From TrEMBL:
Pfam families from the UniProt entry: NAD_binding_10
Highest taxon above the source species: Eukaryota
Location of the NAD(P)-binding domain: 7-223
Native organism taxonomy: Eukaryota, Sar, Alveolata, Dinophyceae, Suessiales
Gene3D superfamilies referenced in this protein's UniProt entry, alphabetically: NAD(P)-binding Rossmann-like Domain (3.40.50.720)
Name listed for the protein in its UniProt record: NAD(P)-binding domain-containing protein
Length: 241
């Protein structure tokens, strides 16, 4: 099985690449800075590195890179500098790339699982529990402030809404939006999954990037996990010891 990883040089994306390789998947990674990958990863026989700026790839090239892939995992995220946060060129990095990947599935000949690294700041409007948990004035005010002041937040919301509203009934494509809240470093440990938000933004739960990667790999590899979580936005939290 071949998996295409986007954002593989990022803090979570690298865990995804490493864990997929450890599970003997063939991995294709589209990265703009391959020198950021550790040497053992670069030399791994299971990894194909495609050096390109994903936003500059023409649709035909994207279709070519997706050929033979059974899953695409996006761990793209905005750079923390002025250009990454406010720059027009990458304003819709996450959502535009996701849209293009989904469009490209029409031209590849096998069903594709699309897995998005989303965020616990996303409230699923048709999930009553999500709406209830986010109903306080303080949280609504904070989310409004983030929408106004932080363009990458809007991009992540746009990507999640794209999955929720625009893929129903599209042949050959299934999706899952994984929602960690507060990302931390750390090893793979036990973790919990929930269908709906369980805590306020002000008491956000922690998740290690390694655990997010582990769950994404399970979604790709384990049919029962995929059946349970496809077309959903699972929340993932490190289990309390
Ligand atoms: N921080 C949190 O607590 C938190 C919580 C929930 C969700 N999230 C979301 O999770 C996602 C991943 O987080 P992370 O911390 O793993 O991200 P990260 O370490 O910042 O990695 C981001 C990845 O996106 C790539 N990228 C950035 N700008 C790009 C561009 N213009 N063109 C092509 N590639 C580009 C980076 O490539 P380069 O290496 O080349 O720069 C890198 O591979 C983000 O969307 C974030 O919003 C974060």
């Amino acid at each position: 099985m071949v998996v295409l990883v986007l954002g593989g040089t990022g803090k979570t994306g690298l865990h995804v690449v490493q864990q997929l390789l450890a599970r003997d998947f063939q991995v294709r990674a589209i990265v703009r800075s391959p020198d950021k990958l550790p040497t053992d990863v670069v030399k791994h026989a299971g990894l194909t590195i495609i050096t390109a700026k994903i936003l500059d790839l023409i649709d035909e090239a994207l279709v070519e890179h997706m050929a033979g892939c059974t899953a695409v995992i996006s761990c793209l995220g905005h750079e923390g500098n002025f250009q990454g946060i406010c720059g027009k060129a990458s304003q819709f990095l996450v959502s535009d790339v996701l849209r293009r990947v989904c469009r490209a599935t029409r031209d590849v000949k096998q069903p594709v699982k699309v897995i998005l690294m989303s965020t616990g700041l996303y409230t699923k409007p048709d999930n009553a529990e999500d709406v209830r948990v986010r109903s306080t004035c303080g949280q609504r005010a904070l989310l409004g402030l983030l929408s106004t002041c932080l363009p990458p937040h809007n991009d992540n919301m746009r990507a999640a809404e794209f999955l929720r509203t625009e893929l129903e009934g599209i042949q050959g494509i299934e999706w899952c939006g994984v929602r960690p809240e507060l990302l931390v470093d750390g090893e793979v440990t036990k973790y919990e999954l929930h269908e709906s938000l369980v805590c306020s933004i002000f008491s956000a739960g922690q998740t290690s990037r390694a655990n997010v990667a582990h769950f994404m790999c399970e979604l790709v590899q384990n049919p029962a996990t995929w059946q349970k979580w496809k077309a959903k936005f699972p929340l993932i939290y490190n289990a309390t010891p």
